[in-house]
Write a structure and sequence with these properties.
Low-confidence stretches: none
Number of strands: 4
CATH architecture: 2-Layer Sandwich
Strand content: 35-45%
Shape: globular
Mean pLDDT: 90
Helix content: 10-25%
Largest sheet: 4 strands, mixed
CATH topology: Signal recognition particle alu RNA binding heterodimer, srp9/1
Strand order of the largest sheet: 1-4-3-2
């Protein structure tokens, strides 16, 4: 079943730089970097298998 795992969540010190590299490589963007009301700044991508991969940077 496509996209049956996850979501996967990773952390980074520089979300904007990671987002630019991933988007430039052709990653499917699900959510551009955004500040969330509950604290972290995050973004989301879909991997080639259809799983959601979220990356966050704490406030």
């Amino acid at each position: 079943m496509k996209g049956a795992l996850g979501p996967f969540v990773f952390a980074t010190d520089d979300l904007d730089a990671l987002f630019e590299r991933a988007a430039a490589s052709g990653a499917e963007v699900v959510q551009e970097p955004a500040d969330q009301p509950w604290g972290p700044r995050d973004a989301a991508f879909r991997d080639p298998s259809g799983n959601i991969v979220r990356v966050l940077q704490a406030g």
